[in-house]
Amino acid sequence: MHDFGIDGLTEADGLACASPSGFVTRIDSNLISGDFTIEDAKLYDFMRLLHKTEDVLIEPSSCAAFIGPVHLESTEAGKGYLAKQGLTADVMKNATQICWATGGRLVPDEVWKEYLVKVVK
């Protein structure tokens, strides 16, 4: 993280446990081929929009998924990633982007109240 100027202090820990399974981490390397970062303020913008339009609340870290598909075609890094993966415009025109979102069923009520203060304006 520090190599990229990221301090690691975020609302979006993106990890529900302190010690992830080594087995799952090894499997993920076959399923995940890219990643990106997003500022906390943007997470709450997406959370607010989802709550306003769909009356749905999800964890802040899940909101990061909404910007991923946009970055693929709007940034140089995203375009480079697509090219490296062989995902040409012809392939991508038939692509479906799926945003994985956790609802936070196990998030304590007190924490949801803190999130709502930041979301409902």
Would you kindly provide a written description of the structure presented here, covering whatever features stand out?
With 121 residues, the chain is an all-alpha fold. 50% of the residues lie in helices and 0% in strands. Helix 4 crosses helix 5. The two termini are 32 Å apart. The model has no long low-confidence stretch (mean pLDDT 81).
Measured on Cα atoms, how large is the radius of gyration?
16 Å
Q: Estimate percent helicity.
A: 40-55%
N-to-C series of helices and strands: HHHHHHH
Shape: globular
Which percent band covers the strand fraction?
under 5%
| Largest beta-sheet characterization | none
Would you tell me the overall average pLDDT?
A: 81
The number of helical segments is 7
Helix and strand content put the structural class at mainly alpha
Identify low-pLDDT runs: none
For the termini, the CA-CA separation is 32 Å
Question: How many DSSP E strands?
Answer: 0
Would you kindly provide a brief summary of this structure?
With 121 residues, the protein is an all-alpha fold. 50% of the residues lie in helices and 0% in strands.
Topology:
Elements: H1 22-31, H2 40-54, H3 60-63, H4 68-74, H5 76-84, H6 89-92, H7 109-119
Helix pairs in contact: 4-5
Main features:
7 helices, mainly alpha, 121 residues, 0% strand
